[in-house]
Amino acid sequence: MNLILEKRTLNNNTIFMRVSAPYVAAKALPGQFIILRPAADSERIPLTIAGYDRANGTIDLIFQTVGASTMRLGTLDADEYIADLVGPLGNPSALDNFTSVAVVGGGLGCAIAYPQAKYLAEHGCRVDIISGFRSKDVIILEDEMRACSDRLVLLTDDGSNGNKGLVTDGLRSLIDGGTKYDAVIAIGPPIMMKFVCKLTKEFGIKTIVSLNPIMIDGTGMCGGCRVTVGGKMKFACVDGPDFDGHEVDFDELMRRNSMYREKESHDCNLFKGANANA
Fold first, then answer.
1. Residue from 215, 16, 6, 200 nearest 114 by CA
2. Does 99 reside within a domain?
3. Cβ within 8 Å of residue 89, ≥6 positions away
4. What is the pLDDT of residues 228-246, one digit of tens each?
5. Rounded to a whole number, what is the distance in angstroms from the first to the last CA of the chain?
6. Cα→Cα distances 231→31, 175, 178, 227, 250, Å
7. Local structure of residue 42 (DSSP, 8 states)
8. Is 178 within the bounds of a domain?
């Protein structure tokens, strides 16, 4: 069992947790993830490690309460326990030897992009962050992203923060303005990553994406997280989660991610009904 040391609400459905996990914290690197169960009878769900503190033996998790399991996780408070977690899983992001990188995050993807941007900045790389959210009310990690970037471009779909546009608009503006990048790291909804990659391919810029398909065991045994990259089948949990964005079949990924949407909605409604009077 893993003790929750801190819990904060970042917006109406996004929660930050700091969890005691010394063995995971000792080896975690940006880009890796854990698999956890909120309770002993919960399903296993993957969450990217949003931060780690080796000295204090803690890891940070940021998640949206959008499914039955994340809703259940969200009911736990500081000083309560997560039933179990395992990690770090997946390959660390290959972030060394870059001098100028654009990190593009969409929505909750910013929680995954932030530790990568922080690592790059700490290792002497110039970092521009382009972040996109639906509206001003759901923006997360603004101060943290600003602190580890040379330039932060923060956009909203509705313009409620005074800067309307998509992340592709922000990235194109920087490239058209003459900024040269060794690489672009894009993390967010598959449709966002698809169009970021379409843009960067136009300019011949290396692009790394982090994929989060359906995943069960996180060790390559179940095959649930298979994705097509460069025409070959890969498992996101052991071959990734980072891949060359120009080789990912995003349309297939989006189809697979939507396969259990009806079941997920059903389970959410069951959870809400069971906890309506709790």
1. 16
2. yes
3. 32, 33, 34, 35, 46, 218, 219, 237
4. 999 999 999 999 999 999 9
5. 24
6. 23, 29, 33, 9, 12
7. S
8. yes
Q: Which of 187, 206, 225 is the last residue of a domain?
A: 206
What pLDDT, in 10s, does the model give residues 153-200? 999 999 999 999 999 999 999 999 999 999 999 999 999 999 999 999
Judge if 97 and 202 occupy the same domain: yes
Q: pTM of the prediction?
A: 0.89
Which tens digits make up the pLDDT trace of 11-54? Answer: 988 999 999 999 999 999 999 999 999 999 888 899 999 999 99
In a domain, 115, yes or no: yes
CA distance 168 to 196: 6
**Residue 142 φ/ψ, nearest 5 degrees:** -60, -50
Which amino acid belongs to residue 32? Answer: Q
3-state secondary structure of 62: strand
**C-beta neighbour count of 44 within 10 angstroms:** 16
Q: Which domain holds residue 41?
A: 2-89
Helices (H), the chain: 22-25, 68-74, 109-122, 142-147, 167-176, 190-203, 236-239, 250-257, 261-274
